[in-house]
Automatic annotation (TrEMBL):
One family name in Pfam for this protein: Phage_TAC_7
Compositionally biased intervals (Low complexity): 92-104
Protein name: Phage tail assembly protein
Lineage: Bacteria, Pseudomonadati, Thermodesulfobacteriota, Desulfovibrionia, Desulfovibrionales
Stored InterPro entries: Phage_tail_E/E
Region of interest: Disordered: 89-111
Amino acid sequence: MSDIRSITLDTPVDVDGQKTSQLSLRVSRKVRDRLAAARLARESYGREHGNEETEICLFAVLAGVPVQSIEELEIADYAKLQEAYAGDGFLSRSPSSGGPSSPSAATQAGD
């Protein structure tokens, strides 16, 4: 499942040499998007990167923009991306919270 969420930026950002005040974020539940973000994080930041860099890369992948465009966002605009993506609670789920990526949750769902 994926849908597109349009985010209006308070401060325009440069995307491939053009200033834009809106980003379209594809909200995806695909593993391949997470893997693409992890690969991009390794390429952009090296092996020693954290969750923040992976999240930046995930947003770049889902918005179809360069990593540098996401890095240049104002904090308030970055928070809008986080909110748009987490709107259905997907971003905040983790194995420790019993979200869908948790083996125990998957096992329980299959029972």
